[in-house]
Design brief:
Blueprint: E1 3-4, H1 23-31, E2 49-52, E3 55-58, E4 86-92, H2 103-109, E5 116-122, H3 127-138, E6 145-147, H4 155-158, H5 180-185, E7 187-188, E8 191-192, E9 198-201, E10 204-208, H6 209-214, H7 220-225, H8 231-242, E11 249-252, H9 257-263, E12 270-272, E13 278-280, H10 285-299, H11 316-322, E14 326-331, H12 333-345, E15 361-364, E16 376-382, E17 384-385, H13 393-408, H14 410-421, H15 445-453, E18 461-463, H16 472-487, H17 492-508
Parallel strand pairs: 4-5, 4-6, 11-14, 16-18
Antiparallel strand pairs: 1-18, 2-3, 6-17, 7-8, 9-16, 10-14, 10-15, 12-13
Helix pairs in contact: 2-13, 9-10, 10-16, 11-12, 16-17
């Protein structure tokens, strides 16, 4: 079972990650195409166009225009940069130099303090990404830096396209203390290829507090605080809501999010072990119990039907206008909270923006399995890897350490929290909206703290699901089967007997 615990105290803070999702959304999010918007330290969402209830809503088209926002000062006393990091070539499907998630880290790295420069090499998402990487390595023209991809383990490491980092980074450095167990969980055949610098939320249950109040239900957050947020409490709340009106829906999920519910048992469906062996848990009793629980909810009529008029994909933007009918939306919480709020507060044109207002949207972690020994949550992480043949490994290491310093700097963590709950006014200094205020998300302080708590191993035992590292065929076999059974009449026991050998066949391809 791939779990990791916190070793030393210090809640990981930071407010930046791409909304990581699984299965089909997983690739879309990290590709930068058709993705959730990238979010900055102040919660600003990147420009995008969405369709909601038949109407196009375009957020500020001038988001990347110059503003008067200041760059945070990073304490480098625990890891002194060389001042000569040089050009670091980054291969990816989005440009991290303009991405709002990490712009400050890039600016710090490209300052005199580090003397670095990030050069983006564009790549297409999916198989083409790995093909391009392999071609560059073969041509002795490797990039220096890569974003961690789900298919890195086991697909990437088994192809020998990544460089082990044990001789480049010190796992015993106090800066990595909170991440030690997580780093070890990505060990492959005795070597560490990945030092993630940030734990991030995976899926959560998003809802509208006003909808909860109007329905006379208890706020899920209060149930969570009181230790009463369990599978059964969640199901009963959805049943009570759906019994109030035939238009009410308890839970919208995708083939990806069903598996996040399964992970609350503490079991991952496919588990890659440090020695390189792989465990197939598809027929594990706890996996069966969780899927059959979801099947029963489907038969109770509380799951979102795939033929609903809202369509088969309820985005956060759609949820912004349907959260009075859909009680819970199972998507990544940061993205959903911001995107839903933005769709109401930041319509086309800065002149129509709503500033300094906390929305009614909220979220809670998936409920606790009452039979589990701990509170388990599906989780993920963010960081960088170095490919084989990289020429500027020293610069790549400095960039990795720059990001880790940013995560652990107490002053920056406090500033980031302040940026979220009480963002200072930022003004456009150029472009169409010169002199006007830039819209920024104002977070509810309680929700911000909960979001950080959901990345704190003192509060949860995290599980990282490995099935996504085997490619789309594995994802479809497992995730699609789980949701098909949840919405259909097929027996999970019968269906899993058909699928398990196919899953094992894909696993066996990685056997020595």
């Amino acid at each position: 079972m791939k779990t990791f615990k916190k070793i030393m105290g210090c809640c990981l803070a930071t407010a930046m990650l791409l909304g990581i999702t699984a299965c089909d959304e997983q690739g879309a999010v990290q590709s930068g195409a058709g993705t959730p918007a990238a979010v900055g330290t102040s919660g600003t969402v990147a420009a995008q166009t969405t369709t909601t209830n038949g109407a196009n809503t375009t957020t500020d088209p001038n988001l990347n225009a110059a503003t008067d926002e200041e760059i945070k000062d990073l304490d480098t006393s625990s890891y002194v940069p060389s001042g000569n990091a040089g050009v670091v070539k980054y291969l990816g499907y989005y440009d991290i130099t303009v991405d709002q998630k990490g712009k400050e880290q890039i600016d710090i790295f490209e300052s005199e303090k580090y003397g670095g420069k990030i050069e983006w090499i564009s790549a297409t998402f999916g198989d083409a990404y790995f093909e391009k990487l392999a071609t560059l390595i073969a041509a002795d023209d490797s990039p220096d830096l890569l974003t961690y991809e789900l298919q890195a383990f086991p697909f990437g490491v088994s192809k020998n396209i990544y460089q082990p980092l044990d001789d480049l980074l010190d796992i015993d450095d106090p800066l990595w203390a909170d991440m030690r167990d997580l780093i070890d969980s990505f060990e492959y055949k005795g070597q560490h290829y990945y030092f993630p610098h940030r734990i991030v939320t995976s899926y959560a249950l998003n809802y509208n507090r006003k909808t909860i109040e109007d329905a006379g239900l208890k706020d899920p957050y209060d149930l969570y605080l009181n230790g009463e947020w369990t599978w059964d409490a969640w199901r009963q709340m959805m049943l009570d809501f759906c019994n109030q009106s035939p238009d009410h829906i308890g839970y919208y999920c995708t083939d990806s999010t069903v598996n996040s519910f399964v992970n609350t048992t503490g079991v991952v469906v496919v588990d890659l072990l440090p020695d390189g062996s792989i465990v197939n848990n598809l027929q594990h009793p706890d996996v069966t119990r969780a899927v059959e629980y979801m099947v029963e909810m489907g038969r109770s009529g509380i799951l979102y039907p795939t033929d609903h008029p809202h369509g088969d994909w309820v985005s956060p933007q759609v949820f912004a206008y349907t959260s009075d009918k859909i009680l819970f939306l199972g998507l990544e919480p940061e993205w959903t909270y911001i995107a839903s709020t933005e769709n109401l507060q930041n319509p086309a044109g800065v002149e129509n923006d709503i500033f300094d207002t906390v929305s009614d949207f909220a979220f809670v972690p998936y409920p606790r399995d009452p039979q589990a020994d701990k509170y388990y949550q599906a989780s993920s992480c963010f960081g960088y890897m170095i490919p084989k043949g990289a020429k500027n490994t020293a610069g790549a290491v400095e960039f990795i350490m720059c990001n880790r310093l940013y995560e652990t700097d107490e002053n920056i963590k406090k500033q980031i929290r302040d940026d979220h709950i009480a963002p200072e006014k930022v003004t456009y200094t150029a472009g169409k909206y010169e002199g006007m205020q830039k819209w920024q998300m104002t977070w509810d302080p309680t929700l911000y703290d909960l979001w950080r708590e959901m990345c704190d191993p003192d509060k949860f035992s995290f599980v990282i699901e490995d099935l996504y590292g085997f490619g789309s065929e594995m994802q479809k076999l497992i995730c699609q089967t789980e949701i098909d059974c949840s919405f259909g009449e097929e027996s999970w026991t019968q269906k899993v007997n058909e699928v398990a050998p196919l899953v094992q066949g894909l696993i066996d391809e990685y056997s020595d």
